[in-house]
Amino acid sequence: MQTIVASSRARDILLLALFSVVVLTAPLWATTIGAGYPDLLQKFAVFGLFAIGYNLLFGLTGYLSFGHAAFLGVGSYATVWSFKLLTMNVIPAVLLSVAISALFALVIGFLSLRRTGIYFSILTLAFAQMSYNLAYSVLTPITNGETGLRVLRNDPRVLDAALGVQVEGSPLADLFGITLTGYSGFYFCALLLILGFRVSLRIFRSPFGMKLVAIKSNQTRMEYTGFNPQPYLLSAFVISGMYAGLAGSLMAIVDPLAGAERMQWTASGEVVLMTILGGVGTLIGPVIGAATIKYFENIFSSFNDQVLQQAFDFLPDWLADFMVTIISPFVGDGWHLTLGALFMVIIIILPGGMMEGFRRIAALFGRKPVKEGQA
Amino acid sequence: MSDDDKKFGTLSRRGFLKASIATAAAAAAPTILIRNAHAFVNEPKGATVTLGFNVPQTGPYADEGADELRAFKLAVKHLNGEGNGGMLNTMKPLSLKGNGILGKKVVYVTGDTQTKSDAARASAKRMIEKDGALMISGGSSSGVAIAVQSLCQEAGVIFMAGLTHSNDTTGKDKRKHGFRHFFNAYMSGQALAPVLAEEYGTDRRAYHLTADYTWGWTQEESIKNATEALGWKTVATVRTPLGAGDFSQYITPVLNSGADVLILNHYGKDMVNSLIQAVQFGLRDKMVNGKKFEIMVPLFSRLMAQGAGDAIKGILGSTNWNWSLTDEGSQAFVKSFGAEYGFPPSQAAHTCYVQTLLYANACEMAGTFNPCGVIEALEGFKFDGMGNGPTEYRAADHQCFKNVLVVRGNQNPTSQFDLLEVVKEVPRSQVAYDPKIFGGELGSCNA
C-alpha cells in the first residue's frame, strides 16, 4: 500500500506549496467551522507535527509504538526548564527539547526494538507509562508533579539576566522580541509544521524511506539481501521521537506549562488514532486526523443544550426540542461517543483512513486517482 | 541531491518565508488593532455577558462535574430573574437586581476539563479566545484549578475556583485573578482536631495512606500537623498511586504497624475503593493498644459517600457544605435545586453556585466588568446568607473564611441522600490562619 512511487518533483513542489497555503491561511478558513481562534489552530499545528513524526515510524516501518507521548512530555519539560533557567527566547528551548527527546528515544528505542510486533508495542507502552508515573509523583522536584511545571517570574533565566532583559507581568515565550502567543504563536508552529512536512516528504522519497518500507513488507527478506534492519529502525524511531519532542516543545512555547498527563498512555493512544483516522503511511493523512480529533475535542465538547436550541431556533418548537433530544447525547459530554462512532465507520468502510475517502471521492468524479503515497 | 532538487529547496524556502511573513502581517494587523481598541479582555459590547463553566464531563470526577454544571445553570437562571431566585433572596449584602449582570443578560458556554491540566487550559482558552468569556469557573481537582487559575491571570479574566482543596490554590500558587470559596486541607485539619480529641482521645497512633500527588501531600501534612499538636503519634505515611483500584497491599501492613487510626488522604474513586477495602478487611472491628481501631477520611463529599455505601457509616471527616444545613441560604438553595432536578445538591454544586453569584454581585458592586474593578470589589468582601454563616473573602490570599463542617457517615440514613450527619460546625475563627505561612504572591491585576 505504501509503495514509494518515484513521482515527479513538480508534483511534490505543488503538494508542498498547497500544504503551506492551506496551513498559513488557516485563520481565515477555520473561522467558518468555528475553529478560528489561536489556541485551537496552535493545537492543529502541534498535533499535526506530532502525527507526521509518528507516521514516519508507524506508517513506514509498521512498528506500532504506544509510548510516543513520553517524548512529547520530555520535550515540554525541557522547554519549560530552558525558559526557567536560560531565557524566554524559544531557539535554545526548541533545540534543547529536540536533543533531549532524541536521547530519550535512543535509549527507549534501543531497548524496545529488540522485539517486534505486540511485544514492541507493550515495551514502549511500559516505558511511557513509567515516565508518566515518574513525572507525576517520584520526580516532582523536576516536574512539579500533578500541578505541572510552570514558568515563574522569579526564575533565574541566566541568559536573560546577563543580557539585562526584564520580564514584566507573566513571562511569555518570545522570538527576538516577537511574543509567541495567540496568532504569532500559531504562525511559529505553522512554519515548523511546514518544515516538518518537508522533511517527512524528503524521507518518504529517499532511499532511507524505501528501506523502512522494506522492513515493513518483509524484514526477513531484507536481512537476506544483506541489510541489517536495526540501525534503520532505530533511526526512524529517534527521528519520530524528535518530532514528538518538537511538538511537545511547541506546546510549552505557546502555553508555558508542562504537565505529566501529556505522557499518559491515553495521549500515546491519541496519536495512534490520529494517524489511523487520517490515513497511515500517507503524507497528509496524519495532519488531517490530528486536526479532526482536536476539533472534536474542543468544539463538539462545547455544544450544550443552549447552543443546540439556538441552532434549531428556526424550526417549530416541538421539532426543535425533538432535534435537541436526539443530538445532545452525541455532543457536549458525549463527544467521545461521536468520535468513537466516526472512528469505527472510518475503519470499517475506509481502512486507509480519511485519505482513502478523499481518493475515492476524487475517483468518483472521474479524475485520475492520485497515486498512493503521494497525497 | 541533483541540481534540480537544490533549486526546489531554495525556491520553496524563500517562497515560504515571503508568503508566511506576508500572511502573518496581514493576519496580525487586525488583531493588534482590536486589542488596542479594548479597554480590557472580552469587554461585553452587546446585550449579553458570557460566563465560562469549565467542568470535568468525562473522567474520574465526571459525577462532580455534572453536579457543578447543574448548579451553574441554576445560578444563571436566578441571575436572569427566572425561577424562584434561590440565594438571591437570602444573600446579604446584595447588589444584584435579578436582571442579569449590570443589565446584561447572562449567557454561558461550557467545556470539558477531563480532569487534565492541558485539556482544561485548552477548554478555558477556547472560552476566552473564541466565545468571549469574562469569567471562568469550575473544576474538580487542585491541579486543574491551579493550571486554569494561572491561565486566567495571563489572559486577564477572572477565575472563580470550583472544588479545589489543596493549600496551594490560595497558598504558594495564588493569583490576583483567582478566588476560592471552597475550604482547604489546612482548615480540614484545624476543624477536625478538636473533634478527634473528643471522640478518640489524645493518645492515638495514626497511619496515613496518601494519594501520591500535590493535593494528597498538602492534606497529609496538614492533618499530621493538626493531630500531632493534639499529642497523637504518626506511625507511618504511605503514598499510594492515583487511581490504584486495589489497595489491599497498602492496607494489610496497617494491622501490624501498631497504629490504631487509619487516615485516608484520598478523594473520589480512590477514597471509595480504599475505604471499602479497609472496612472489608475488618479494621474497624479490631482492638489495638486497648482502643477501638478507627478510620478517618479528612475530605468527605456526599457523592463519594454514595459510592462507598455502608462503609462510610460512623466515619469522621470534614466537608465544605452539606444540604442538611438549616440556615436560610442553604435551605433556599436546596429548595431551588431540588425543584429543578429532583435531588439535593452536592458540596461541589454549592460552591459553584455561590461563586457565580459572588462574581455577578462583585460586577454590580464595581459597576463594571473590568477585572481590576471586580477584584477590588471581591477582596475583603463580607457576606452572609449563602450557607456556612458569615463569610469573608480575605484580600491577602483570595481565600474564603467561613465555618467548616465536621461530619460523620450517617448510621441510620433516612433516604439515599441522607448520608452525612453534621457533628460540629467549627467556627471560622478556629480555622483561620496567617496568609504568610504558605508563601506565594498574588501579583497584580492584569487588564
- The general outline of chain A is globular
| Low-pLDDT segments, ≥5 res of chain B | 1-11, 28-37
Assign the CATH topology of chain A: ABC transporter involved in vitamin B12 uptake, BtuC
| Tally of separate domains of chain B | 2
- Strand arrangement within the widest β-sheet of chain A reads 1-4
Helix content of chain B: 40-55%
Helix content of chain A: 55-70%
Distance between the termini of chain B: 54 Å
Q: Beta-strand level of the residues of chain B, as a percent range?
A: 15-25%
Q: What is the count of DSSP helices of chain B, taking H or I runs of 4+ residues?
A: 13
Structural class of chain B: alpha/beta
Mean pLDDT, all residues of chain A: 88
Q: Which properties best describe this structure?
A:
heterodimer; A: 375 residues; mainly alpha; ABC transporter involved in vitamin B12 uptake, BtuC; two-stranded antiparallel ribbon; two-stranded antiparallel sheet; 68% helix; globular; disordered C terminus; B: 447 residues; alpha/beta; Rossmann fold; 7-stranded mixed beta sheet; 5-stranded parallel beta sheet; 17 strands; disordered N terminus
Structure in a nutshell:
The complex is a heterodimer of chains A (375) and B (447). In chain A, 68% of the residues lie in helices and 2% in strands.
Note down, in words, how this protein is organized.
- The complex is a heterodimer of chains A (375) and B (447).
- Helices cover 68% and strands 2% of the residues of chain A.
- Chain A has one domain (9-298, 331-364): ABC transporter involved in vitamin B12 uptake, BtuC (Orthogonal Bundle).
- In chain A, a hairpin with a 2-residue loop joins strand 2 and strand 3 (178-179).
- Chain A is mostly helical and 375 residues long.
- With 447 residues, chain B is an alpha/beta fold.
- Chain B has two domains: 48-183 and 323-402, Rossmann fold, CATH 3.40.50.2300; 186-319, Response regulator (Rossmann fold, 3-Layer(aba) Sandwich), CATH 3.40.50.2300.
- Chain B has a seven-stranded mixed β-sheet, with helices on both faces. Chain B has a five-stranded parallel β-sheet with strand order 2-1-3-4-5, with helices on both faces.
